Every structure is written in structure tokens, then in C-alpha cells.
């Protein structure tokens, strides 16, 4: 199987990223693996899609760090390949990382991905619906029962009105963002700085204001889904609890949060059940649900992370399960050809 991973840039990848774990697992099995930066795509005059790519040179690496070190080495050269001849493209770039320096890059890459899908390449998550999910407004299209009460605006007075409606306790964050960046907890202690917080949040556009859920003080659950359902291997869920013991209020690992093994309770599984139909309809093959109690705080459809952490905590081969599932999809695609759309294949 030929598999390409779309990433922001090989030099900004980190060895604790799920993408690197998946790439190492696929290479170890013997699949042809390449990583593609968002600015390295090429539309050919014959209408095929090419790219300058980074390619692992071995099948066996001691760990993720060794693979990434090879790809980022100063002597590592990019190679030109025809992506139209690949079986699978996994879209793993984070649009939030491009907002300030390369705002054109994520949408351009999604359009390239749509062209590849039209030419018969299995592209996941479905690039058309990922375009629809370009910011957190997409979250509001999921069932109301699993969402916190939310307001969205870039007007200071409207944001303050929403906070008042939530009894002065709320979470405010940029509409475009990830990893806990620019997230503020609004309460009595932060009211004195409210104007500065709002101005900082709306500096680059709309802000999203959510009611504060008291259970969030204990952290949240990251539950990874595959084909619209919670990912399990040998009865163990790809799930962990993220928390912050510093009083920061953010549980994201990239924001200094910690993590521990967790099994989703009945409420979390009901949340996953409620969002499954839309995940499947939208071709959201691999996602990360961030759950607090019976509510979903966020859904990561661009670069759902945590596979490496789930594996390290449980000893289960979640990355291997994902690669095996991709192999199955490629077999189905070969059997059915154009009878199955990308969106259908994404969650079969």
C-alpha cells in the first residue's frame, strides 16, 4: 500500500505526534510511506498531482524520535512523486498553525486533496467535509444535546452579553485554533481583565464563548474514534483523561496538561453514540472527541492526536489497527472501484 501523510511542514513535526507514530507503524509493516508539506504540492499539466516529499529510508526504527530525526536531518532531500498513484492520503495538517504565517496553505491543500479524491485516491478525512470544518463553527452542526451552550461573535458587547447569560462563568477562545491556544476561563477572578482577554481573543477574528462546565476542573476525556465509532483493540478503548494540576484550566497536553489511562463511562459513550451518524455522513474517518461529563467540549477532525499516548498507557497497538483498517479499505476500493465514494469508504 502506498500511503501519503499531508502535514504542515516536516520541520515543524514533533516526535510525539500521532502522524509520526502512524508513519513508523506503516513503514514497519512494509508499506510505502511519504510525508508531504502543505507548500510542496504540484498540479501537473496532465492534471495529475505530484509533490516533493520526505520518505523514510528504513522499515525499522527504534522509536518515533529516530524516524523524525532522519526526516529532519540536514542531509535529507525531498523526492518528487506522483500522488495520483498512491492508494491512501491521510490529511494530518493543523490549520491553526498556519493562521498567522500561511493562511492560504490549509485551504489550498484541501483543494489539492479534493482533486486527488476525484482521481480515485482514498483521501481521509473526507476533504470536502474538512473544508466545511475549517473552524469551530462546524462543532455547532452536531446534536444540541451533546454541546455546551455557545455564542459566537467578534463584537465585544455581544461577548460580554453571552458571559452574563452564562452567569459570569464561561470559556472564551478563538474560533480558529487548537491545542489550548488562546483559551481563557472567565470567572470572578478574571473579570478585572475581561476587556484585555476579549481583545486578545478577537484580534484575529471571531471568538467562541461556551458555558463553563464545573466538571472540566477535573480535566476531560480524549476519546478517539475510527469509522465514526470509538476505537478499541482487544476490548480496550483508545481513550485517556487529560488534566492540569497547575490551576491553568486547560487540559491540552500542548498547554502543559498531563494524562492518564481512562475507560469511557456510560455518559461518554452516549456522547460518542450521538455524534456517530454525522461523523459517518461527513466521512470523518479518524477524530478525537474531547468530553466532559455528558458534553463534548470540542471535536478534532483535522489532526486528532493521542494515539501514541493511548498506546504507551495501554500497550495496545492502536496504530496497527488503523493501518490494518486502511488496508481493508484499499481492498474494498479495488473490488468496487468507483461504485463507492470517498465519503462512503471513509467510514465503511
Automatic annotation (TrEMBL):
<dbReference type="InterPro" id="IPR011761">
    <property type="entry name" value="ATP-grasp"/>
</dbReference>
<dbReference type="GO" id="GO:0005524">
    <property type="term" value="F:ATP binding"/>
</dbReference>
<dbReference type="GO" id="GO:0004363">
    <property type="term" value="F:glutathione synthase activity"/>
</dbReference>
<keyword id="KW-0067">ATP-binding</keyword>
<dbReference type="Pfam" id="PF02951">
    <property type="entry name" value="GSH-S_N"/>
</dbReference>
<dbReference type="Pfam" id="PF02955">
    <property type="entry name" value="GSH-S_ATP"/>
</dbReference>
<keyword id="KW-0547">Nucleotide-binding</keyword>
<keyword id="KW-0464">Manganese</keyword>
<dbReference type="InterPro" id="IPR004218">
    <property type="entry name" value="GSHS_ATP-bd"/>
</dbReference>
<feature type="domain" description="ATP-grasp">
    <location>
        <begin position="137"/>
        <end position="327"/>
    </location>
</feature>
<dbReference type="InterPro" id="IPR004215">
    <property type="entry name" value="GSHS_N"/>
</dbReference>
<dbReference type="InterPro" id="IPR016185">
    <property type="entry name" value="PreATP-grasp_dom_sf"/>
</dbReference>
<dbReference type="GO" id="GO:0005737">
    <property type="term" value="C:cytoplasm"/>
</dbReference>
<protein>
    <submittedName>
        <fullName>Glutathione synthase</fullName>
    </submittedName>
</protein>
<dbReference type="GO" id="GO:0046872">
    <property type="term" value="F:metal ion binding"/>
</dbReference>
<dbReference type="InterPro" id="IPR013815">
    <property type="entry name" value="ATP_grasp_subdomain_1"/>
</dbReference>
Amino acid at each position: 500500500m502506498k500511503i501519503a501523510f499531508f502535514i504542515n511542514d516536516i520541520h515543524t513535526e514533533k516526535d510525539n505526534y500521532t502522524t509520526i507514530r502512524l508513519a513508523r507503524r506503516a513503514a514497519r509493516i512494509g508499506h510505502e510511506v511519504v510525508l508531504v508539506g502543505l507548500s510542496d504540492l504540484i498540479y501537473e499539466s496532465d492534471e495529475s498531482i505530484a509533490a516533493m516529499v520526505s520518505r523514510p529510508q528504513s522499515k525499522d526504527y527504534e522509536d518515533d524520535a529516530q524516524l523524525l530525526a532522519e526526516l529532519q536531518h540536514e542531509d535529507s532531500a525531498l523526492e518528487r512523486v506522483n500522488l495520483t498513484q498512491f492508494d491512501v492520503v491521510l490529511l494530518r495538517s493543523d490549520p491553526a498553525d498556519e493562521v498567522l504565517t500561511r493562511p492560504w496553505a490549509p485551504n489550498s491543500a484541501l483543494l489539492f486533496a479534493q482533486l486527488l479524491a476525484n482521481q480515485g485516491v482514498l483521501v481521509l478525512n473526507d476533504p470536502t467535509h474538512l473544508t466545511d470544518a475549517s473552524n469551530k463553527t462546524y462543532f455547532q452542526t452536531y446534536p444540541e444535546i451533546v454541546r455546551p451552550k455557545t455564542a459566537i461573535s467578534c463584537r465585544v458587547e455581544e461577548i460580554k452579553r453571552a458571559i452574563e447569560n452564562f452567569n459570569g462563568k464561561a470559556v472564551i477562545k478563538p474560533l480558529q485554533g487548537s491545542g489550548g491556544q488562546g483559551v481563557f476561563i472567565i470567572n470572578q477572578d478574571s473579570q478585572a481583565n475581561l476587556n484585555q482577554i476579549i481583545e486578545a481573543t478577537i484580534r484575529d477574528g471571531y471568538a467562541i464563548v461556551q458555558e463553563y462546565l464545573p466538571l472540566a476542573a477535573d480535566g476531560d476525556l480524549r476519546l478517539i474514534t475510527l469509522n465514526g465509532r470509538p476505537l478499541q483493540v482487544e476490548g480496550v478503548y483508545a481513550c485517556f483523561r487529560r488534566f492540569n494540576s497547575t490551576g491553568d484550566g486547560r487540559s491540552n497536553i500542548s498547554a502543559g496538561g498531563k494524562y492518564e489511562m481512562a475507560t469511557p463511562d456510560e455518559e461518554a459513550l452516549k456522547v460518542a453514540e450521538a455524534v456517530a451518524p454525522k461523523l459517518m455522513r461527513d466521512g470523518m474517518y479518524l477524530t478525537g472527541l474531547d468530553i466532559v461529563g455528558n458534553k463534548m467540549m470540542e471535536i478534532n477532525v483535522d489532526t486528532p492526536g493521542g494515539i501514541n499516548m493511548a498506546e504507551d498507557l495501554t500497550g495496545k497497538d492502536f496504530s496497527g489497527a488503523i493501518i490494518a483498517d486502511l488496508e481493508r479499505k484499499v481492498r474494498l476500493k479495488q473490488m468496487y472501484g468507483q461504485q463507492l465514494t470517498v465519503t462512503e469508504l471513509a467510514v465503511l
